[in-house]
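Sequence and fold:
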Amino acid sequence: MRQLNLIYLTDLVRFRIQKFKNKDANKVFKQEHPNVNLPPDYLMYESFGINYDNYYNGGLKMAQWLVDHFKKHIDLKDKTILDWGCGPGRIIRHMPDVIGNNCQFFGTDYNAESIKWCSEHLPGIAFNKNNLKAELPYSDHSMDVIYGISIFTHLSEEMHYAWFKELYRVLKPQGIMLLSLQGDNYKPKLTASELARYNEGQLVVRGKVKEGHRTYSAFHPKSFVEDLFKDADILEHIVQTSTNKHWVPQDIWIVRKPE
């Protein structure tokens, strides 16, 4: 489908199938949570899928999980925290309640519709629309914590280095960055030629679609990531496991910017 330029059509069909399959469960969620603001279905799907409970309560669990990892490496009081690639606010919407502690919260994404929805429906968080080009409006050394969940997974090799440099610019010395990447767990999904490149330490990219879109996919061998993060101190590399055959977990990398 990718080679025939039919990947967008395939993805649209997948969206409609997911919407139909989740119709009843989503109706129940809305009845039980009438005051929860939910983004338009396709914005939700682009970010994570189209199950309302997974979007909202799954986002809350993810926020709590992230905060537990942050706390191992930084005191979360009076801090500035950035969600890079926030989408329709699945995680960042929960951070003010999960963290509190007089922290300031920021979200940035290249999807204009997502940022518009977040800005209109999620108060107490400063949202910014970025472009694919690695430029953010924040000053040098302005963020204590930056996290990006499955964002590098949709970028080219050039943009990996450009974006890490830009994120590193706005990160404070002794600040931390948590990023999820498609590591060894994804090797069974690779073609023979892709696997050969991966095993040689090369980033594997499936393109022929708009960069940044959910269908644009990158896979990250350990040696490539270590080179990408060579200016930072690598604090943790977490290889997650899963007993759910429908979920392939990404690797979690946590790095610190030295003084």
